[in-house]
Design brief:
Layout (H helix, E strand, L loop, with lengths): L31 E2 L39 E3 L7 E3 L6 E2 L4 E7 H10 L6 H5 L11 E8 L3 E2 H10 L3 E6 L2 E4 L2 E2 L8 H5 L2 H8 L15 E7 L22 E2 L20 H10 L16 E7 L2 E3 L2 E5 H13 L4 E4 L1 E5 L6 H12 L3 E5 L18 E3 L10 E8 L18 E6 L6 E4 L11 E5 L1 H23 L5 H10 L2 E2 L11 E2 L2 H11 L17
Parallel strand pairs: 11-13, 11-16, 12-13, 16-18, 18-20, 20-21
Antiparallel strand pairs: 1-6, 2-3, 4-7, 5-6, 5-8, 9-15, 9-17, 10-23, 14-15, 17-19, 22-23, 24-25
Length: 540
């Protein structure tokens, strides 16, 4: 490194709160600029395994194939090397390209203390940005200020001891369709057979308790934040030592916010949270899929960018890392990136792979049609949905499409795939009439605490709640939680099969809570007080 001639760099010494500001004038001498407008100097369990393999250990991160990943790739299950390149890196990156780098946090802190010059690549891209020590890796977004030779960039990256990987900073949006408030009832609860299933999940002798005992499930809602003061949600919140959760859009600044209030114009994150785990039997509002014995970890990743409300690879990767390192059992991703043609995101794949390797169940929405574009088949060639397509190859991640709760048939707004969509769940009552759930009082919902939204964004948290029910019941009974792949197996094998869904979702499967709890009882009989002496290999 010391023999290389480096371009001058600049340091940002002010907090960077907004990332991805485009078209900002840059008068600084340097190769990169940050996304800102200013620049200055034990237990039991029946053994089961999924047929779908986890990424081979040698390839459990796309950055194992090279630290600079700017080409396209596919993930294919059934082989040892499931990550397959479809195109290589370009030869040149033009000025103004938005990139993101993943850096080992402790390593970068050590280099900063040493005040090396000229700095490694990781030091340059993180200039002026704060480190969050509790993250083992931190993502930093930046924009190239000159044309870059990619071969030289690859060589610098390979020599950098702190750099994990570098790629494009992709943009993601939530997967909800918008509806006005409707009738005060939740049709989807009956559709899922939740009332009868609750009697088994919360059996007074063998089921989960209705109060916390340290074995409850933690659901990380990676979204627009959560109204943690909502009367149906406040009692469910997981708490960080410095606040409620984290606003991942502030990671990298000196003003990290641990109280991520929902800032969405449609209360997206709060609506998702209520569907997953709104408090039950409290005389207030609605009931979540897991109404007791669950905690919500609020992780805000969305921010307003012009007329759009969106997030990026950098922010989501940091948010997922926070969930992984703070004990989440389930991560809900009601967000995505839809592309006509092939697409890939190594940062998203890397973050999710680390989560499932840590035995966290990841639930992702497949995405929705828009008014100008009908629902499409997700195939990775003519149409791509990220991160939903990664679930097919990652045991422990499950991708969800939408069904109508009145008919249990495919919602015509839901994208579909018999390869990538593993389970259907209600995302609307009928047509685009949304599911009823918790909201922040905003103008869009006529300042009400409850309203309707439809979309695969609403389907995913119902499955996240179901996954948390499975984890909570088994951990409360056996002492240890089931592995992420085991939870996925129980969800899919314990699903209802609808012939009308066969053209849209794998096996025509849809979520049915009553069938699910019966599947858990069969495979883990101590959950109904019938010990058969099974080994603990199915649990952590």
């Amino acid at each position: 490194m010391s023999g290389k001639r480096r371009l001058p760099v600049f340091v940002v010494s002010i907090p960077i709160l907004l990332l991805g500001v485009l078209g900002a004038f840059n008068s600084c001498e340097g190769k990169f600029k940050p996304h800102a407008q200013a620049c200055l100097p034990g237990g039991g369990g029946l053994v089961r395994k999924l047929d779908s393999p986890l990424l081979d250990p040698a390839y459990n991160s796309p950055f194992a194939l090279g630290k600079v990943q700017l080409g396209e790739y596919r993930i294919q299950s059934g082989g040892t090397q499931v990550l397959t390149k479809t195109s290589g890196n370009p030869t040149t990156l033009p000025a103004g390209t938005q990139l993101v780098a993943s850096v080992k946090t402790a390593c970068l802190a050590d280099l900063r203390d040493q005040n090396q010059f000229p700095p490694p690549l990781s030091v340059e891209v993180a200039d002026g940005r704060e480190l969050l020590p509790e993250l083992d890796k931190q993502a930093f977004s930046f924009i190239t200020t000159t044309d870059l030779n990619v071969a030289e960039l690859e060589a610098e990256a390979a020599e950098d001891p702190c750099l994990v990987g570098l790629s494009y900073n992709r943009t993601y949006r939530f997967q909800a369709n918008l509806n006005d408030p409707g009738a005060f009832y939740q049709q989807h609860l009956a559709s899922l057979n939740l009332p009868s299933a609750f009697d088994s999940f919360y059996h007074p002798e063998f089921g989960m308790p209705r109060v916390y005992n340290g074995k409850e499930a933690i659901i990380a809602v990676v979204d627009t934040g959560v109204d943690y003061n909502h009367p149906d949600i406040s009692s469910r919140m997981w708490r960080h030592k410095d606040g409620i959760g984290i606003d991942a859009t502030t990671i990298g600044t000196g003003l990290v916010d641990y109280n991520p209030m929902d800032n969405s114009p449609i209360s997206h994150g709060t609506h998702v949270t209520g569907l997953a785990a709104a408090a039950g039997d409290n005389g207030v509002g609605v009931t979540g899929a897991m109404p007791f014995f669950a905690k919500i970890m609020a992780i805000r990743v969305f921010r307003k960018n012009g007329s759009n409300f969106e997030t990026t690879s950098e922010i989501v990767a940091n948010g997922i890392a926070f969930a992984r390192l703070n004990g989440a059992d389930v991560i809900n991703l009601s967000l995505g990136r839809l592309t006509n043609g092939p697409d890939s995101d190594p940062f998203y794949l890397d973050a999710i792979t680390e989560a499932v390797n840590a035995e966290i169940v990841v639930v992702s929405a497949i995405g929705n049609a828009t008014g100008s574009s009908p629902a499409q088949e997700v195939n990775g060639s003519t149409f791509t949905s990220l991160p939903g397509m990664y679930g097919e190859a990652l045991a422990g991640m499950i991708t969800i499409g939408s069904v109508n709760s009145k008919t249990n048939q495919w919602s015509t707004f839901s994208h579909f795939s018999t390869k990538y969509v593993e389970l259907g769940a209600p995302g609307a009552e009928d047509g685009t009439t949304g599911l009823y759930s918790t909201t922040t009082p905003v103008a869009f919902h006529q300042n009400q605490l409850y309203a309707r939204l439809s979309g695969t964004s609403m389907s995913a948290p119902l499955v996240s709640g179901a996954a948390a029910l499975v984890i909570g019941l088994i951990r409360n009974t056996y002492g240890n939680k089931p592995k992420a792949a085991e939870v996925e197996r129980l969800l899919t094998e314990g699903a209802a099969q609808e012939p009308g869904l066969n053209p849209y979702f794998k096996g025509g499967r849809r979520l049915d809570m009553n069938l699910l709890v019966k599947k858990v009882h069969r495979d883990y009989p101590e959950t109904i007080g019938q010990s058969q002496g099974f080994s603990s290999l199915g649990c952590n």
